[in-house]
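Q: What does the assembly look like in three dimensions?
Context provided by user:
Components: two
Sequences:
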Amino acid sequence: MRWKEWAGHYAVCSYDVHHDREYFAIRHAAALIDVSPLHKYEITGRDAAAFLARVMVRDIRKLKVGRVVYLCWCDDEGKVIDDGTVARLDERHYRVTANAPALAWLRLHALPFEVGIEDSSERLGALALQGPTSRDILSEATGTDLDGMKFFDVMRAVVAGAPIQLSRTGYTGDLGFEMWVERGRALDVWDAVVKVGESYRLETVGLDAMDVSRVEAGFILNGVDYFSANQCLIESRKSTPYEIGLGWTVKLDREPFVGQAALREENASGSSWALVGLDYDWDEYEALYNEFRLPPQVPAGAWRSAVPVYAGSRQVGQATSGAWSPILKRNLALASVGAEHAKAGTRLRIEVTVEYRRRTVAATVVETPFFDPERKRA
Amino acid sequence: MNDLHKPSRSAYDAIIIGAGHNGLTCGAYLAKAGRRVLILERRHVVGGAAVSEEIYPGFTYSVCSYVVSLLRPNIIRDLQLPRHGLEMIPLDCSFTPLPDGRSLVRWGDAARTRREIARFSPRDADLYPEFGLAMGKLARFSKDIIDHPAPDPASFGPKDLLRWARLGRAMGEMDADLRYLNLQLLTMSAADFLDRWFESDVLKAPMSCSGIIGTFLGVRSPGTAYVMLHHYMGEIDGAFRAWGFAKGGTGSVSRALASAATSLGAEILTEAPVERVALRSGRATGVVLGSGDEIRARTVISAVDPRRTFFGLVGREQLDADFVKQIERYKLRGSSGKVNLALDRIPEFISRPGDGPHLRGDIAIAPSVDYLERAYDQAKYGDFSERPYLNVVIPSTVDPSVAPPGKHVVSIFVQYAPYRIKEGPERWPERRDAFGDAVIDTLAEYCPNLKDSILHRQVLTPWDLEQEFGLTEGNIFHGELSLEQLLFLRPAAGWARYRTPIRDLWICASGTHPGGGVMGAPGELAARAVLRSGAA
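A: Here is the predicted structure of the complete assembly.
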């Protein structure tokens, strides 16, 4: 079993020597993943919607009770601070999830509004159950037919006598759910789900397997594929939502929100960067290894050490994370490249190290998600 | 899938007889090149022996072929099979339970495997990775052979010379030790070859099994060492020697291939048995269906085995005596059967009780080399083995879609079950139950809760494989993978390039180079040969 630190907590990378089995559980059965270290904030009160509409790039006032949205938030210059979700649990109760601590930033903007902001990160456990059999397991564990629960719905439920919020969300790009529960009851929920899951080939799964699935799903990660504007030493490291593939979450034409003016300007004038999916040319990749009489070796897990991306011999960007997709049999990467190189079908070159030598192979710009099963939404 | 009951046109560029995985692969590649292709299948489902069927409600059996290893990665990419629903799950390990309650598991993790083997022989534990490395080097050499048509030693054509030169170069890059090893591999028996490396019978027995699968030979028969290497070439994700399941059963491979083929424009017609190849002045001009309808095509490509192709669909009278002799001598001796089970719980082994990762790989009932050879002894004289070699997999442990929650499907490959039992092959149906009982009794010795948990069983004898799936004599590889009928000798000397003596008739399945297994290479290479020749 391997561990790492995640937001000051121990988190499991893999329960085994290698995450292979866990990865396949995500795609073929069900994976129970402890994602409790996520940062969570409860936004309550009369102005909760107006407040969130002010700080988020989406118009939260349109979010209905029982629904969740994915989005990002920016600074005044329109540079992304973090991405996450907002769930509307009640008429006046929203929950924000974030990669990085956001309490200070939320409070900074709260002053004119009548809202309560609670950092519930420590109070709430978060358990993700992802994979094709996850719905069957949770229907049984909650005693509720979940067939009618739609992608990005959130509802109340009870597991092992513990009240939970159940959302049809996740970070794997598969059919999946997340359970939000008071931490004192989280173990009971975990155990109950594992028990029911036995018949459905549930596996407890660590972060390494999830990382492969998130690359396949084309999901970006704060601190890896982009950097929070709050954390950047230099301007060039900052990104706007348009530059990291989150332009679709921005709703410009509405009441003022943080970053609106800058984003409006960029939307009109165009962005200089774009986040794209890259698919390595397998024949070239294999030929490169063959030069050394080696069989092609694919990355054993998802990688996060950025490598240069070229158009011809000129560097036009960097691949920030990638993985070999065991399901697609393709070598994949997420990359930031100059906007003029972002069109699907564009042939670029990516750095590969073979036998200690730095080389490049062709890679084609492709649409993300790389893997998008129907069951995710069905 | 296209399930029209009539072909959409009266003439095609190519008609493929048989929608097994090779026929489908060949058809998909031809369609990809823009040819009008019709694929005809006798049964109600595509896939041939690579088929999943729900024979007992709620349980999906991989009826015949049960693991996927050799399916060429380039085919998966070229035809975008994941987009057409193909998802593969690797087998975790190889588990060998012993009758005395001990057991050996060879895991994916080298250190863990070392500790397992060391319980039987610390020396073997050290040598095991070295053996894997040597086989890996040789398998890499063989990969060059698999990925290209076989060169013909009797030909001095420029292409053949080039192919030999490429092989020679690869040979030249081997060091001398490896070259000797290669020669040993070509000439020795699996058991003798392993004796040179290892001392522990518990290790050698399951390893030697891959030398006999699908052949009518014993682990002590010369030539079986090479077949062992053939199985070492299993390749998933560029990693050699890895085997896997297709999600939803092996039929998913065929369904994905069929979906790829139809999306590229090929037509597939099921329940359309081909009666014979239509011939005009010695040329194939199309096919005549069981219904009497004739469909014309510029090229006809057979994806059924060589004997059935030439003697069944063409007719001896159309062929030279020399060629007829070669096809007559081509060995198709079926040696194996299959038992599929639906269970109401996970099978528990005495040696490792309970559910666990050891059940997610393949399970070999092969407790000793003598056990395996004894199993062969009975088969030599026309009986099925009372205590056969079993290769068991439980795909529902990693793919819950094939069985209801908490329940399981078990696939058991059984060797030996000779096609020619002494009563005569046509008497197999009377012995089917006894054969099934012998298999269950054997497995139950290791797994006592087995009999009480069986909800349904399907027993396939070599006779059934022939009658239902069209595999002549029940041979799962369309002809044994023995040296004398591989490479430029498959299926006949001088005819190893997918062409046949009949003009415009080609052959594209496991009875051609590089042979059997759910590999797709014969189908792909045949399609490329047809396209290059301009025949379609």
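Follow-up: Chain A touches chain B through 29 residues (CB under 8 Å).
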